[in-house]
Amino acid sequence: MKNRVFLKLIIFLVILVPFINSCGPFKPKRVDARNVPPSGDERVKKNIEEGKGFSLQEALTNKKGGVFDFASSNELWRASLDTIDFMPLINANYSGGIIITDWYSEQNSNNESVKISIRFLSNEIRADALDIKVFKKVCPKLNQCVITETGDEIIKELAKNILKKAAVYEKQNQLKRGRKVHGNVSPKKKRN
Q1: Do residues 145 and 139 make contact, with C-beta atoms less than 8 angstroms apart?
Q2: Nearest 5 degrees, angle CA 184-CA 185-CA 188?
Q3: Could you tell me which residue, 88 or 33, shows the higher pLDDT?
Q4: What is the pTM of this model?
Q5: Does 7 map to a domain?
Q6: CATH number of the CATH domain containing 124
């Protein structure tokens, strides 16, 4: 009986030793004392700068936050969706900044359909903030379709409509918030 317990203990130690020995990350690192600031406050500051810790005081007093742009507050996004709202969508990914429609065709044209892709390069309302691509699919016979990227006229017209709507939405939002709109201050309601 004693031999069996002793044998189990030896097997356990043989298995345990490699595990304990492999705990290299938990071993303290050798540090040159000349590179460590002598003051505790300076060491804390250095550790925080290196990302090794955090300061509750900074976390509570620092008012920096993330930037949260939501689709309902982005005029360019809303205007784009409103402009192509008659077309079925395959993908509308706000965080990825892209809208892709499904193939759309008018009721009177069975062999032609159009697909639109709008990519947002910026949240600002300007002409170079959108990358619009329009594809046309023509199928003279079943399973013999030809897909081509269309010319600039449709793209220019779409971009113009989107930018106009976005500018209107932006003006409406500024009026709601009581901000200046092109040099004019929106009237504030009088309190009784």
Answers
A1: yes
A2: 150
A3: 88
A4: 0.56
A5: no
A6: 3.30.530
